[in-house]
Design brief:
alpha+beta; single chain
């Protein structure tokens, strides 16, 4: 077991800064711990990716917390890829955690909601899939998780309906709705808490609707979830 560090115990190298997100209506920051993502949680997106949503339930993967791109920051087009896709998603920010959380109690663990983008190197993902390899380079690369500010439950409640859209240069590219999710937030939290111990500061991206596609340098992405948040991200 690693011994705890106190303020008096020096590090051998400077520790990395904590990833944080702004909270709407306050100067306080939300400290991010882990970033979980749900796959194939909209039937139409599962179909467009070549899968049967009736046979394959959503699954989970992770991005590094320092892959988060804060509101107002541009998305740098990554190297070693020629096919980078956008995926607009609802974000859950947990204020409390636990194991084996029940669906009936799950919403009580959500502190805030936001909108995020699961940026994906689709060419690298396809190559990894063909060889049965992990998706880390396709999903967890630097700046691969642009995020909006977080909107507390105390301000907006628990949205269960609302349009989920993504525009590129003013053109509508993705269009769905929160009510189309196969697994709702309470189901996602309950199942995820059986696989991992959830903690305050964890973020969960809840899946994307159909219409994912490529972006190019110079594009501007606008992600929006009605009743939650809006996010504008230029591609550089």
């Amino acid at each position: 077991m690693t011994p705890p560090h106190s303020a008096e115990m020096p590090y051998v190298i400077p520790p990395a800064p904590r990833t944080t997100l702004p909270v709407a209506g306050t100067d306080a920051l939300f400290p991010v711990r882990r970033l979980y993502c749900v796959g194939r949680n909209y039937a139409a997106h599962a179909i467009e990716m070549g899968h049967d949503p009736d046979q394959e339930p959503p699954f989970f993967f992770q991005k590094p917390s320092d892959a988060i791109l804060c509101p107002g920051q541009a998305f740098p087009y990554p190297q070693l890829s020629q096919d980078v896709h956008f995926e607009v998603e609802q974000v859950l920010a947990l204020g409390t955690g636990g194991q084996n959380i029940t669906p009936a109690d799950a919403l009580d663990h959500i502190f805030a909601y936001g909108v995020g983008l699961d940026m994906t190197r689709r060419d690298l993902q396809s190559a990894a899939k063909s060889k049965g390899r992990p998706w880390s380079a396709a999903k967890g690369f630097d700046h691969s998780a642009p995020m909006s500010e977080l909107h507390p439950v105390s301000d907006i409640g628990h949205p269960t309906q609302g349009a989920v859209t993504l525009h590129v240069n003013g053109e509508l590219r993705q269009s769905g709705a929160l009510e189309q999710m196969i697994w709702k937030p309470q189901d996602i939290i309950a199942h995820l808490s059986q696989l991992f111990t959830l903690h305050p500061g964890d973020l969960i991206l809840t899946g994307t609707p159909a219409g994912v596609g490529a972006i190019q340098r110079g594009d501007q992405m606008q992600a929006h979830i009605a009743g939650i948040a809006h996010l504008t991200v230029p591609v550089i």
